[in-house]
Protein: GTPase HflX
Amino acid sequence: MDNSELVPVVNIGLNTGRYNFDYAMEELKALSEANNMNVVETTVQNLSQPIAGTYFGTGKVEELRDIVVDTGAEIVVANDELTPSQIRNLEKIVKVPVMDRTGLILAIFANRAQSREAKLQVQLAKLQYQMPRLHTAMNQRLDQQTGTSSGGGFTNRGAGEAQVELNRRTIQRQINHVRHELKDVDKSAAVKRQQRERIQLPNVALIGYTNAGKSTIMNELVKRYGMNEDKQVMVKNMLFATLDTSVRQLQFDDAKKLLLSDTVGFVSQLPTTLIEAFKSTLYEAANADLLVQVVDYSSPNRIDMMSTTKQTLAEIGVPDLPMITVYNKADLTDQDYPSRAGDELVVSAKDPASIDLLVQVIREKVFKNYVTATFLIPFEKGDIVSYLNEHASVKSTDYLANGTKIEAEVTSVDYQRFEKYVLEQ
Structure:
C-alpha cells in the first residue's frame, strides 16, 4: 500500500520531561502506520503538564490548525490519552477528528482481532473507553445543532442529559453482555489448558515488545520440531500483527516435548482497559515454566522496550518466573551472532545456528530436572513400556526373562511414578 492510499495524519506530542519522549513519538508514528495512516507532519511542545482544556497551549493549537490546513491532514493523533473536553476543544479549532493514543491502539486491536476471544476483549475495552466520553460527545452534538458554546443551550441540556444516561445504560448492558460471553470463552480455554496440563509438558512462553520477532522465532521452531508443521503463525513487519496467543507442541529428536506459546506483544502506555482485557490472553505467560523475552537488538530503544515488558508483566500479575533474554535481529547490527552470555543470547531468527543455540538454552532450562534411570517393567505392564516410549527419551531396550529392561531419561514426576521398577545400579 503506497502513501496515497493511506489516511494523512498529523502526530502531536507533549514533552513533559517525565519519560523518553523521542522514543514515545517514534512509537506513535509506528502505531499510526500500523493503523493505515501516513504521518505527514509531527508537531510537539515542551510543557511541564498538559493544558487542561486544549492539551497544547493556545499558540501551538493555532499553529496545529494551520499545519492541518497546509498538509491536508484528515486526523490529528495525540501521543497521550486526552480528556473528553481536550478532544472536543481541539476538534473545534483544527476542524478534523482528534484521536488520542488509547483510541489509536484500540483501533489497531479492533482491526487485528481474529479469534472470538480477542474480538470480545477488544470490544470490552472499547466500551469501557467510550463510557466516560458519552457526556462530552452528546454536548458536542447539541452545540452543533443549536449553535451554542459549551456553556449555553440550557433549554436542550436536560434532554441531552437524559440521552447520555440512556446511552450509558445501553453501554453498561453491552459491557455486561460481553463479560458474560468472555466467561464462556474462558471456560472453553480453561478446558484446553487443563488438557495440556494433564500431559505434564513444560510450557515455554515467548514474550516481549510487539514486532520484536516472537512469531518468526516460533515459526522456525515449529518448522523443525512441530508436531504439525503447517501450524505456522502469521508474521508481518508491523506492530500488533497478531493478537491471539498461539500454542504449539514441539518434540525434539530425543522424544522430549514441550509447549511453546507466542503471546500478544507489548507496547508502552498500553491502555489500562486493554491490560485488564488481555489478562486471560496472557495466561500462558503467567503459567509458564520459562519465559523467553524477545528483544529487537537493532532498535536504539531496546532498553525502554525491555522496561515496558517488565512493567506490563507486573501490571497483569505475571510472577517472577525463570527467564532468558533473546536479542533478536542481530543481522541488522554489526554484532557477531549467535552468541551467549549466561541467560542472554544474541541471535537472528532466520539463522539456523541461532535457532540451535536457542534450543540448547531452552532445553537446559526446562529439562534440567530429568532423571536417567534403568527400569525393569513386567511384561503385563506393557502400558508403562508404551508410555515411556512415547514420553521419555529411551536410550536402550532389552527383553529379559522377567520383563522389559529400559534405560530412559524421564521427568522427575515420571521417575516417582515408576520408581518401584527402577533397577539399582
Q: What stands out?
A: The longest strand covers residues 37-46.
